[in-house]
Structure formats: structure tokens, C-alpha cells
Amino acid sequence: MELRINGRPHAVAPEWRDEMLLHVLREHLGLVGAKFGCGMGLCGACTVWLDGAATRSCVLPVGAAVGHELMTIEGLAAADGALHPLQQAWLEAQVPQCGYCQAGQLMSAAALLRQNPAPDEAASAVAMSGHLCRCGTQQRIRGVLIQGRR
Ligand code: FES
Predict the structure, then answer these.
(1) Taking every annotated instance into account, which residue ranges of this chain make up the domain 2Fe-2S ferredoxin-type (predicted)?
(2) CATH assignment of 2-75?
(3) How far is the CA of 109 from the centre of ligand 1 (A)?
(4) Ligand 1 proximal residues by C-beta, below 6 Å
């Protein structure tokens, strides 16, 4: 069994088969950008891409990800290290506070912009509605998405 993550193959050991993707990413593969928040698919901290769609990795059995293209926050920047335009916009707007939820927020925002390069307020609200942030960064995130700073 093998996962493709950020364009690279990763072997999945047989004993990991019953684990959730988030656990495999963080504990076995060292990809710790996606975070454990609720573990129930409710907060968005663990969001990664599955075939380009924002997906909660805490509730996705690792076996269900086999045969799909995964991307984590570690794969969002260019191979030469240049930030994704959305990451750059995030920095310029000083979006993060504690930062814990931001990898998941970025993956959902980037997935939205792939589908809709100029989202309006309603589309942004829907796309980001499943992300909890106790620091209150939602307004700045919505501003980045709506103002087209990407
Ligand atoms: Fe996955 Fe909260 S940790 S949605």
C-alpha cells in the first residue's frame, strides 16, 4: 500500500491500515503541518487535499486515501520554497495569531480559489464555514479571499 503525498510516494506499513490519515501523516511520515483539533471532522485543523478537494484527514481512514493524490500544507509552496500566493497574502494581511488552525484554513482557501478564483463573500463564507479559530482570524481570511490578494 502506498500514498502519494505532495507528488511523492510514501509506503504505508500494514500495521497502519486501521489508522486515520492524519495520524499517519503526523506520526509516521513526519508531515506535521495538518493539526489535530477535534478528531471528529468538526474543526478543520486537519484539512488536506484529496484530489484537489479540501478533506478532513482526521476522519479519513488511510486506506481510503490510497490511489488518490494528496497534498498537505507542506506541498503548497513551490518546490524552490517560494510561497504560494495565498500564503504570501496571509503574511501580508497578518492573518495568523496562534497559528494552530492556519494550515487547515489555507488548504481550504486554496481549494476554493482553484475552483473559484474570485469568490464573493457568500462563497468564501461557505467554503470556510467549517473552520474554527479561537483567535478570531476569520474576518482577515475572508478579507484576503474577497479582496483578491493572492
Ligand atoms: Fe479534523 Fe478537527 S481535527 S476536523
Answers:
(1) 1-76
(2) 3.10.20.30
(3) 16
(4) 36-39, 41-46, 56, 58
